[in-house]
């Protein structure tokens, strides 16, 4: 266990919605041996999403109860939808794996950095607005969801300079290769 405690690192994938964070993080995570800690959300699942894979989908009442019990390390509200990561799940994952990863927006990434300091590596994945829009359309998101996401584009991109790593995601295989090579420099 001491060996895990010495090595433990949290890789936070951030960046604009639709830039490909989840796809890149999933592939890099598998290649680098990172374990994902999933967020909880009160948002209804989208057609392509699965409970326990993309998020833990819970009711607003369940979220509020967990929040009152101080179970979340941080929470986020966007347009009446709540998101959060449970501290206990980060701790439990660290009992088994030295390296975990999270997918968070700018606010969550910043807060996790404040809590865990230099144990946190922030990786911003990005693509231009047009790419984001076309990928989300192809994924089947509604135009309403896409326009809501794009409203946050500049804000999320504005975090680029504060991240340890930033990679443009155009050719997926190249992005995965580049991010994997960088993350391997952090993993001993
Ligand atoms: N380099 C790429 N080239 C083409 N398509 C990609 C690339 N990277 C990701 N995609 C596709 O773009 C879509 C959005 O990717 P993904 O879900 O990983 O993004 P995200 O940033 O996690 O977005 P969100 O937070 O909205 O779920 C997916 O359908 C994914 O398969
Ligand atoms: N700070 C946090 N941000 C989170 C969390 N879970 C997801 N997110 C981010 O929210 C937006 C919107 O997500 P969507 O899936 O509804 O499009 C996106 O940037 C996510 O990465 C969390 O627990 N904390």
From TrEMBL:
<dbReference type="InterPro" id="IPR008144">
    <property type="entry name" value="Guanylate_kin-like_dom"/>
</dbReference>
<dbReference type="GO" id="GO:0016301">
    <property type="term" value="F:kinase activity"/>
</dbReference>
<dbReference type="Pfam" id="PF00625">
    <property type="entry name" value="Guanylate_kin"/>
</dbReference>
<keyword id="KW-0808">Transferase</keyword>
<protein>
    <submittedName>
        <fullName>Guanylate kinase</fullName>
    </submittedName>
</protein>
<feature type="domain" description="Guanylate kinase-like">
    <location>
        <begin position="8"/>
        <end position="184"/>
    </location>
</feature>
<dbReference type="InterPro" id="IPR020590">
    <property type="entry name" value="Guanylate_kinase_CS"/>
</dbReference>
<keyword id="KW-0418">Kinase</keyword>
<dbReference type="InterPro" id="IPR008145">
    <property type="entry name" value="GK/Ca_channel_bsu"/>
</dbReference>
<dbReference type="InterPro" id="IPR027417">
    <property type="entry name" value="P-loop_NTPase"/>
</dbReference>
<comment type="function">
    <text>Essential for recycling GMP and indirectly, cGMP.</text>
</comment>
<comment type="similarity">
    <text>Belongs to the guanylate kinase family.</text>
</comment>
